[in-house]
Write a structure and sequence with these properties.
CATH class: Alpha Beta
CATH topology: Rossmann fold
Strand order of the largest sheet: 1-2-4-3-5-6-7-8
Number of domains: 1
Number of helices: 6
CATH superfamily: Alpha/Beta hydrolase fold, catalytic domain
Structural class: alpha/beta
Distance between the termini: 27 Å
Radius of gyration: 16 Å
CATH architecture: 3-Layer(aba) Sandwich
Largest sheet: 8 strands, mixed
Number of strands: 8
Length: about 220
């Protein structure tokens, strides 16, 4: 397992990330977190480890700079700025496509909270460059009209006790025109903190990525 701390240089900003690549990876999954979170999120790190054990490479990175996160804690002006988050995610994706170790890998997204909307918007913009999307406790509804343009097979995972988010995911699910699935984890809240809940998320995600990530060679 090759683990590297990386710096992703985008227009006007540099974002820190952690890249984990198993030998002969099935593909690479970029994680898009919600506001107030980052690449050190224990939940995303756990899911990433499960994916790595399944032979999938992972890239966890910060969508916002440290200064932006600090300002966001007071103003909350960026957490629902889905176009900005999607632009950062798409930029990180293009960065990965130009790195030698990742250039030929099929790519997927794992999005949480508002990061799920950013993942869907970026997937729509990059079209078939993204092979698969998984949303954990996400707000896919915030992707708006981009939902109809997503072509990547998309899995929406929601906690069974996260009632408001269930309905938002159901509405978004009805708008998706791609291969899709909606899975509700019984007894789980928004953060999947209950015993066994996050394990179920990771299992569902690993199965979805395993089914769809390596099926077709990435189009350039």
């Amino acid at each position: 397992m090759a683990v590297n701390e990386v710096t992703i240089g985008l227009k006007g900003v540099k974002l820190g990330g952690t890249l984990d690549l198993p030998s002969n990876p099935l593909g690479l999954v970029l994680f898009a977190h919600g506001s107030g979170s980052g690449r050190h999120s224990p939940r995303n790190q756990y899911v990433a480890r499960v994916l790595q054990e399944a032979g999938v490479g992972t890239l966890l990175f910060d969508l916002l700079t440290a200064e932006e996160e600090q300002a966001e804690a007071y103003t909350r002006h960026l957490r629902f700025n889905i176009p900005l988050l999607a632009e950062r995610l798409a930029g990180a994706t293009r960065w990965a496509l130009h790195e030698g170790k990742m250039r030929d890998l099929n790519l997927g997204y794992f999005g949480s909270s508002t990061g799920a909307a950013a993942a869907l918007l970026a997937a729509a913009e990059l079209s078939r460059g993204i092979r698969v999307v998984v949303s954990r406790g996400g707000r896919p509804d915030l992707a708006g009209d981009a939902l109809e343009r997503v072509t990547a097979p998309t899995l929406l995972i929601v906690g069974g006790d996260d009632t408001p988010v269930i309905s938002l995911n159901e509405d978004a699910y009805s708008r998706l025109r791609c291969v899709k699935a909606l899975r509700i984890v019984p007894g789980a809240s928004h953060l999947f903190e209950e015993p066994g809940a996050l394990e179920e998320v990771a299992r569902l995600a690993a199965e979805w990525f395993g089914e769809h990530l390596g099926t077709v060679k990435r189009e350039t």
